[in-house]
Predict the structure.
Amino acid sequence: MTNTIREIGGADFILAIGTNTTEAHPVIGLQVKKALRGGAVLAVVDPRDTELARLAHHHLRIRPGTDVALLNGLAHVVVAEELWDRDFVAARTEGFEALRETLAAYPPERVAEITGVPADTIRAVARGYARASRASILYTMGLTQHACGTANVLAVANLAMLCGHVGKESSGVNPLRGQNNVQGACDMGALPNVLTGYQSVADEAVRAKFGAAWGAEIPSRPGLTVTEMIEAAGEGRIRAMYVMGENPVLSDPDAGHVTEALKKLDFLVVQDIFLTETAQLAHVVLPAACFAEKDGTFTNTERRVQRVRKAVEPPGRAKADWEIVCLVARALGYPMGYASPAEIMEEIRRLTPSYAGITYERLDRGGLHWPCPAEDHPGTPILHVGKFARGLGKFHPVEHIPPDEMPDEEYPMVLSTGRRLLHYHTGTMTLRTGTLEVRYPEEYLEVNPEDAARLGIESGDLVRVTSRRGLVEVRARVTDVVPPGLVFTSFHFPAVAINRLTNPARDPVAKIPEYKVCAVRVEKAGPAAAV
């Protein structure tokens, strides 16, 4: 996030696109509601009629996979009606004329035909966003999990810069992370092309610095993303895999293929706190400690680094992840001998400029936002104040392209997936609480009443959902939360392994799979039950 969670409550215009905030990020959803109580205008871009959409002044019920067209349409109105921030664009950006040329092809009427959002609504939202004093854009995986996910994010950045809503309080571009330490994991180099603090492996000086610290040669070639690794395992190009705190058998697209690929490995190690569906395939399972059983830090979605303190001892032979990694490294002949998370943090500070000023002593007094380059630096709650990291912000013209897989005669409907308020990820933890699974014991498929009538489906019926990759059976719930032609469910329940259906087609830049648009066929499979 360019701004903090608290600042969302002070915005006077919020554009939420591809985010079901009140269910997937309920704490942040409270800040959205706070902003509404303060008089903010809320525009929600979502095919579904979620709680957030029902709170909105403008619900842009977009056709799945048409976000670039919509964002370009909003920017078109801003330029055509001369609402753009001329001073900001002139002083802090480059590439405006190329963007203007691309936007000319996206008038609201054409965008309405592509997206299904009325032209008048597009104009109203564009005007409201451009004229606001403090406008914040929120997005999550509903925007990124597309074959055009990178283009979607670039289109968001274009709109924010065009209106000058960057580098000031209660504004900015705010991607909401999907898990509590995803930001921290990325910061620590859990990406295939960077080391800590997003220092590129292609940079010779960076490789030399880390090589000297670790006594090892750092490869210059980027590695593979998760879905690329699964593909390589299936093809025999990867023979062994070490999975930590991840459950790809349920969470990755085309999950049947994932299972087969993992079974082809010569050696699979899984390090986790429970025996997940992926761990059940492993040759070796390493029992890890959970968050309450170890010391360390988490970095949350607003870039705030916070201390994690051990509250209880881990059960049995479970150990903290860092301890396990050290033991494995030493068994492999590499002398990884850290004595504590504090010692690891000191190395992070030495090698990572954005974390250089973050110490345990300072964190004991409260969290700090990176970049924090020195011990006397207060941290950076708001990014891009005065200038961008690259100097001038660059506009990237992007074009609408349709989803990789569109409905056809054989698979006439679109499946989209997401999250439910009461459960989390693949249910590894939330299906073991003794409470949440009682409140929400099984998953269901949202089906629009028009589609249900055509298919002879009633709420509670068992339905079979089939894609080009597999099938699942799930109970139906007939509801107008979804529009005609769209069905929706979550990936929380192993009994409804919905990612057996989803499309592994990837964005060409970020390599993120297209979870949000998948062509399916829905058929009645059994009699009704209470839903």
Q: What stands out?
A: The mean pLDDT is 95. The domain at 413-528 is CATH 2.40.40.20 (Barwin-like endoglucanases). The chain has 21 helices and 23 strands.
